[in-house]
Design brief:
The chain is built from 6 helices and 5 strands. With about 140 residues, the protein is an alpha/beta fold. It has a single domain, classed as Glutaredoxin (3-Layer(aba) Sandwich), CATH 3.40.30.10. Strands 1-3-2-4-5 form a 5-stranded mixed beta sheet, with helices on both faces.
């Protein structure tokens, strides 16, 4: 029994290490139309186009954030929908303006998908990775 626990513990550590070595978020291509690491420009664009702002908050080390960006945000249908209906932004939750907004809204965990109105007020957020269908179902309520 003692060895079974040690084996399970070792496997858990190896699995965690493997998930940490996946591509970093910055290595995943930015979807079309996204502002990156800025807030003033998206706010101005949201007012100009009378649209809400979609923000993908991530941490560079977060493998779920990289997977979400790659598998969902870069998916053709999602990319086109978000670009046509929102002002899309990606912000690093641990640096710069992304950290400020992340902390102002008392967010925790990764990834965070958030929708702000054109004045920068938080409308809603979702913590965790979503599938393409889950994401589209969630975000369509804030168009």
């Amino acid at each position: 029994m003692k060895y079974a626990f040690q084996i399970i513990f070792a496997l858990a550590i190896l699995t965690n290490f493997a998930s940490c070595t996946k591509d970093k978020v910055s290595k995943v291509p930015l979807p079309d139309g996204y502002f990156e690491e800025t807030w003033d420009e998206p706010l101005a664009a949201a007012k100009d186009y009378d649209r809400n702002i979609y923000v993908h908050f991530y941490a560079e080390w977060c493998s779920l954030c990289a997977e979400f960006k790659s598998d969902v945000l870069n998916e053709t249908e999602v990319e086109a929908y978000v670009e046509a209906n929102f002002v899309p932004v990606t912000l690093d939750s641990e640096n710069g303006v992304g950290k400020e907004i992340f902390e102002q809204n008392n967010f925790s965990g990764h990834p965070i998908s958030a929708v702000f109105d054109k004045d920068g007020n938080l409308l809603q957020f979702h913590r965790g990775k979503m599938t393409k269908t889950e994401f589209l179902d969630w975000i369509k309520a804030y168009e």
